[in-house]
Amino acid sequence: MSDKSESSAAGESGSSSRFRHLLPYLAAHKTALTLALMLSVLGAGASLVQPLLVNQVIGRVEAGQALGSLVVILAVLVVLSGVLGGLQTYILQRTGVAVVFAARRGLVRSILNLPIKEFDRRRTGDLVSRVGSDTTLLYGVLTQGLVDAAGGSLVFIGALTAMLIIDPVMLALTLSVVAISVVTVTVLSKRIRRASLEQQRRVGDLGAAVERVLSGIRTVRAANATEREIAKIDRQSRGAFEAGLEVARISAFIVPISGIAMQASFLIVLGVGGYRVASGTISLADLVAFILFLFMMIGPLSSVLGAITSVNQALGAITRIREVTTSPSETDDDVKIDLVSPSSTAAVSFEEVTFSYGDETTDDELSGQSHPSSPVLVGLSFEVQRGSRTAIVGPSGAGKSTVLALLERFYDPSSGVVRLNGTNVRDITRTSLRSQIGYVEQDAPVLAGTIGENLRLVADSATDDECRAVLASVNLDAVLGRSPMGLEASVGEDGVMLSGGERQRLAIARTLLNAPPILLLDESTSSLDSLNEVLLRDAIDAISAQRTLIVIAHRLSTVVDADQIIVLDGGRIVGVGTHSELLFTTPLYQRLAEHQLLA
Ligand SMILES: Nc1ncnc2c1ncn2[C@@H]1O[C@H](COP(=O)(O)OP(=O)(O)OP(=O)(O)O)[C@@H](O)[C@H]1O
């Protein structure tokens, strides 16, 4: 859906306005770029002097005079322009990689700060591709584009001035040919920009397709779907290939245009110039110098025309980069309070909270799409007393996880108020809100890295002893015995060394390191063996002793002794009470309990 916005963005703003967006990246390297430009001026000067010297050489040969130091100076100039060119290349490439580096840093910062709703609608692979592939294209602007154009235009202007002095008539003829080629290339360059934006978008689609398969590779293998998935990814690759071909086709028009312009100007100058030499209007030495200047002028012109592809690719890339960096990030601009001091006995309260995911995207100007959807939570009101243990139960899709998401302020309610210690969560900075709450997701993600790194995600200064202590508190200390590396032992990309129950307990241990007064636990739906189930129950018992606990329970056995159980159905509360109360008052709870052989 973001694709649509990209194309409209590309259509609306011109290349000059997008070029402006490159400036902050370039401004950071003013010194290096100025140096490169100065080297380019020197190089241009060294090149421009050469035809003048050749003119002198021819004049002296015609007059039968000795060449003397002229040849030496010519040789020195040739070497000098080579050295200057090498130095300039190094400075530019160095600046190019530094710009890519800066762009990647900025982009990663923006991506990680996007509101959670953005991750619902964006594809991870596409975001990864923006960081990896789009930023790389910025490199071309500097190394090939900008300074080639700057240095080239100096040589161009210098050569033009010399040609004007030598013979204005021949210059006018030459320029008319050049003008035709420049106009043609300018028209084509717009198409290049559009095509390369499309190409990058296709590369993003490809990244998303690969990411989708890799994240479910076991399911894909087990379903014997490898070949089908390869065929699907192949279609995305083909899309990128075809968009690349379009760029190649347009470039194929651009590149020969400069060649044709050179040949045509050369032939015209040769014909007209020969006639003017024969009629005595100009000398042979002047004609030779004019032709050398002509080549000198066309040279940069062709490299600038050639660089149009890379510059336009970069402008396409900057569109995709800015599409993320200009997206609003999760901000606390509207927030008034930094620290929450309890002003109520309720640790958490929901007051008439209604929420629909559609609201979050309806006014989404980037996608330009609206998703009017029915509310996921309707008029939800409940209180969780400090130090108590609350369970939320209900059928799949009832809205249980959404309750926790609102408490974490991943989303804000459409109406109603969510309070933490009596304060509206919208008035508390997210950092301080989240420091009060430990949150264990349903799928308990274990990040690639070591057990220690996984624990220290919430508290990077935690000591080894503290890490061991929290592992012990969730009955996970045995895991450390599995490898001589202990805390430094790695867990696989998806925590393959750990069972589902162990992953969940590792995630609980992680949040405990921060000793949050409130713990939200979205219990894993995956079935646990009886030993793991007992271990998880013990862990929950141990941690709930000192804090407020809200558990989304899929196993009623883990909640029978909760202080309060909230039964949700279709986003509404259909019952609140203890296990024994609900067995009498709430038919849905009765059914759930019977189903789980608890009644
Ligand atoms: N990010 C989202 N964007 C749009 N709709 C969503 C999103 N997350 C959940 N929903 C929808 O909201 C409803 C409630 O989802 P939620 O995950 O809160 O239910 P749940 O009771 O926790 O379910 P489960 O027990 O299966 O985890 C569902 O219909 C779901 O499809």
UniProtKB/TrEMBL annotation:
Q: What residue ranges are annotated as transmembrane? A: 32-54, 66-91, 137-163, 169-188, 253-275, 287-311
Annotated ABC transmembrane type-1 domain residues: 35-313
Q: Which superkingdom heads the taxonomic lineage of this protein's source?
A: Bacteria
One molecular function GO term is: ATP binding
Q: Where is the ABC transporter domain?
A: 348-595
Entry-linked CDD domains:
ABC_6TM_LmrA_like
The record ties this protein, via Pfam families, to: ABC_membrane, ABC_tran
| Bilayer topology term | Multi-pass membrane protein
Gene3D superfamilies assigned: ABC transporter type 1, transmembrane domain, P-loop containing nucleotide triphosphate hydrolases
Q: Record keywords: Nucleotide-binding included?
A: yes
UniProt keywords, alphabetically: ATP-binding, Membrane, Nucleotide-binding, Transmembrane, Transmembrane helix
Q: Which cell locations does it reside in?
A: Cell membrane
This protein is called ABC transporter ATP-binding protein
Organism the protein comes from: Arthrobacter flavus
